[in-house]
C-alpha cells in the first residue's frame, strides 16, 4: 500500500516579511522532517506574503524572495517542500516550487489569475499554461495555486497526467459565505477527476482582508475528510492512501464553535490584532459613547490585544444621557481598561462662540450636531498622538453606506473594525459575545441596557437614529440587496419594500461615496466590502 505523509502549514506569512517568512518556513520544515513527513506544504506566496501589491514591481524585493527560496531548497534533505513565491524570469509569475534533495526540482505557475473583488493578480502576474505534476514517494501529485482549482481545466490536466492527489495552496480571504463555496468547488473537482484534494489556506489579517485558514481534505469520491478550524495556526498532519484515494487527518485541532457569529467574531479579532501588531503600534484608543457600536468595538479590542493595551474615552456633552455614562463606565470597569471622561462642552461652546459672527442669520441645524462630533474627533486624535495608541473608528457598515457619519468627526480613526458589519449584525455579535462570556474568561462585557436601548448619536435632545433612517432591520435588508446583491431599485421594491424608502436609501448610498473614500480601512467580512472591493465612482450621473 502506497501512502504519503503530509504536513500542512496553516500559518500566517506576513506581506513583505521575506526573511522572517523564510525563517518560519525553515522552522516548520524541521518539524515536518522530525515528524516523518514526506511533503510539507505552505500557502500561496509564502515568502512574499499575500497580496504583496506593488512590492512586486521592485526588483530588489523579487531578488530577496529568490535568494531565500534557494537557501530553503538547500535545507530540504530528507523531506520535500512545496513553497509559494513570486517567480521572476523576465515576467513575474505567482508560483509554487517543489524543493527536494537540496534543490528547486520544479516550479508551477498559477494559471487562473483572479481579477475581481479584492484580487488584482492580472496587474502583477502573467498566467501559467500547464499544470505541474510530480511523483513524491510513489504518489503522483498535481500542484495547483488557489484560483486554479476554481476552474475545471487545471485539475483535469493533472488527472490526465496521472495525478492521484492534487495539492492546492491558497491565500483565500474569508467572508461569511466562503467556506461553503470552497467545499462545493473541491467536491466538484474531486468528482470530476477522481483525485483526492488537499486545500491549504493562509491565516492572518492583511490591511482590509482576513485569511481564515479553514484548510480542507477531500477524498477522491468528493467526500470531505477533514476541516481545519478557522483562524487557528497549526501544522496539520495528514496521510494519503493512494489505493483508496482517501485522506486521513491526524489529530487536527477541534473547532470550538462553527456558529456564524463565532467565526465572524474571530475574524474581527484577528483583523484588529494583526493590524496593530504588524504595524508596530503599542495599543489602541477609542471613544466609548455608551452606544452599541463602540461597546462591541471595545470588547473586540480587548479580546484582540488585552485590556492593558486598550484605552477608552467617554466624551459627554449636554445631550449625553445618564444611561450612556453609566453603560460606558460599567463596561470599561468590567473589561479593566484605562478609562477617561473628558467633557466636550467647553470646547464645543468655544467653537460656537468663535463661529457665531460667520453663522449670523442662520438657524441651528446639522452643522452644530456635526461640530460636536468633530470636537470629539480632534480630542481623540490628540490623545492618540500623545499616547502613541492607534485610534479605532467605531462606525458600522449601515452608517457608512448611507453617510450617517461625520467626516473628521466620528469617522476619525486609523482602523475601523465594524466597517463591513451591518448594524443588525452588530446586535447579533454583541448578544453572542455576552452569551459566550465564559469562553473569554469573564462575565457579560456589553451592558444589556446598551444592547436594548434605541440607537442614538445623542447630538440633540431625544434623538434616535430612526429620526433620520428607516428601522435598521429594513435598512439593512435594502442595503444587502443593493450592495451585495447588486439588485436594482425596482427589483428591491418588488420584494415588498416601499418604493420611496428604496429610492431614498439608494440615493444616500450613491451620494456618500465621497465619504467612504476618506474612511479608515477595516476588515472585509462580507461578499461586497467598501474599499478595495466595491469601487464606485464618486462623480456619477447614474441613479
TrEMBL record:
The keyword Coiled coil does not apply. The active site is at residues 44, 110, 146. One of its GO terms (cellular component) is cytoplasm. Keywords: ATP-binding, Ligase, NAD, Nucleotide-binding. It catalyses: deamido-NAD(+) + L-glutamine + ATP + H2O = L-glutamate + AMP + diphosphate + NAD(+) + H(+). Residues 4-242 form the CN hydrolase domain. ATP binds at residues 287-294, 394. Deamido-NAD(+) binds at residues 370, 399, 515. It is an enzyme of class 6 (ligase). InterPro entries: C-N_Hydrolase, C-N_Hydrolase_sf, Gln-dep_NAD_synthase, NAD/GMP_synthase, NAD_synthase, Rossmann-like_a/b/a_fold. It comes from the Bacteria. Its EC number is 6.3.5.1. Pathway: Cofactor biosynthesis; NAD(+) biosynthesis; NAD(+) from deamido-NAD(+) (L-Gln route): step 1/1. Pfam families: CN_hydrolase (PF00795), NAD_synthase (PF02540). HAMAP family: NadE_glutamine_dep. This is Glutamine-dependent NAD(+) synthetase.
Amino acid at each position: 500500500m502506497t501512502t504519503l505523509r503530509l504536513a500542512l502549514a496553516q500559518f500566517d506569512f506576513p506581506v513583505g516579511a521575506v526573511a522572517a517568512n523564510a525563517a518560519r518556513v525553515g522552522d516548520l520544515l524541521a518539524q515536518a522532517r522530525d515528524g516523518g513527513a514526506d511533503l510539507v506544504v505552505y500557502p500561496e506566496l509564502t515568502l512574499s506574503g499575500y497580496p504583496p501589491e506593488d512590492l512586486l514591481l521592485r526588483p530588489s524585493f523579487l531578488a530577496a524572495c529568490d535568494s531565500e527560496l534557494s537557501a530553503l531548497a538547500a535545507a530540504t534533505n530528507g523531506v520535500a517542500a512545496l513553497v509559494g513565491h513570486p517567480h521572476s524570469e523576465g515576467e513575474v509569475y505567482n508560483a509554487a516550487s517543489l524543493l527536494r534533495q537540496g534543490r528547486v526540482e520544479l516550479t508551477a505557475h498559477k494559471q487562473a489569475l483572479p481579477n475581481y473583488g479584492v484580487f488584482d493578480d492580472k496587474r502583477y502576474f502573467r498566467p501559467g499554461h500547464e499544470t505541474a505534476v510530480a511523483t513524491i514517494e510513489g504518489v503522483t501529485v498535481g500542484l495547483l495555486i488557489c484560483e486554479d482549482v476554481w476552474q475545471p481545466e487545471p485539475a483535469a490536466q493533472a488527472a490526465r497526467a496521472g495525478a492521484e492527489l492534487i495539492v492546492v495552496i491558497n491565500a483565500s480571504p474569508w467572508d461569511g459565505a466562503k467556506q461553503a463555496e470552497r467545499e462545493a468547488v473541491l467536491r466538484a473537482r474531486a468528482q470530476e477527476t477522481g483525485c483526492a484534494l488537499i486545500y491549504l489556506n493562509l491565516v492572518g489579517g492583511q490591511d482590509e482582508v482576513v485569511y481564515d485558514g479553514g484548510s480542507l481534505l477531500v477524498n477522491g469520491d468528493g467526500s470531505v475528510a477533514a476541516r481545519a478550524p478557522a483562524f487557528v495556526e497549526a501544522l496539520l498532519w495528514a496521510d494519503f492512501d493512494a489505493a483508496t484515494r482517501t485522506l486521513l487527518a491526524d489529530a487536527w485541532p477541534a473547532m470550538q464553535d462553527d456558529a456564524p457569529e463565532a467565526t465572524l467574531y474571530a475574524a474581527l479579532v484577528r483583523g484588529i490584532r494583526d493590524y496593530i501588531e504588524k504595524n508596530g503600534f503599542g495599543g489602541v484608543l477609542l471613544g466609548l459613547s455608551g452606544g452599541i457600536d463602540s461597546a462591541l468595538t471595545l470588547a473586540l479590542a480587548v479580546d484582540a490585544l488585552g485590556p492593558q493595551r486598550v484605552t477608552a474615552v467617554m466624551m459627554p456633552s449636554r445631550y449625553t444621557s445618564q444611561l450612556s455614562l453609566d453603560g460606558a463606565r460599567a463596561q470599561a470597569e468590567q473589561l479593566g481598561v484605562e478609562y477617561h471622561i473628558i467633557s466636550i462642552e467647553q470646547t464645543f461652546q468655544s467653537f460656537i462662540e468663535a463661529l457665531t459672527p460667520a453663522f449670523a442669520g442662520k438657524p441651528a441645524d446639522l452643522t452644530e450636531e456635526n461640530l460636536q462630533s468633530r470636537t470629539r474627533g480632534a480630542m481623540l486624535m490628540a490623545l492618540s498622538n500623545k499616547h502613541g495608541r492607534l485610534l479605532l473608528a467605531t462606525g458600522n457598515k449601515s452608517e457608512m453606506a448611507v453617510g450617517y457619519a461625520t467626516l473628521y468627526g466620528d469617522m476619525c480613526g486609523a482602523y475601523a473594525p465594524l466597517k463591513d458589519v451591518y448594524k443588525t449584525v452588530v446586535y447579533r455579535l454583541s448578544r453572542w459575545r455576552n452569551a459566550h462570556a465564559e469562553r473569554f474568561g469573564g462575565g457579560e462585557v456589553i451592558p444589556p441596557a446598551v444592547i436594548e436601548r434605541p440607537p442614538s448619536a445623542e447630538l440633540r435632545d431625544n434623538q434616535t437614529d430612526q429620526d433620520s433612517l428607516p428601522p435598521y432591520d429594513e435598512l439593512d435588508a435594502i442595503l444587502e440587496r443593493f450592495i451585495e446583491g447588486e439588485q436594482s431599485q425596482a427589483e428591491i421594491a418588488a420584494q415588498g419594500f416601499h418604493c420611496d424608502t428604496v429610492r431614498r436609501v439608494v440615493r444616500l448610498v450613491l451620494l456618500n461615496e465621497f465619504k467612504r473614500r476618506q474612511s479608515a480601512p477595516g476588515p472585509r467580512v462580507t461578499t461586497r466590502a467598501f474599499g478595495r472591493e466595491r469601487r464606485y465612482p464618486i462623480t456619477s450621473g447614474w441613479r
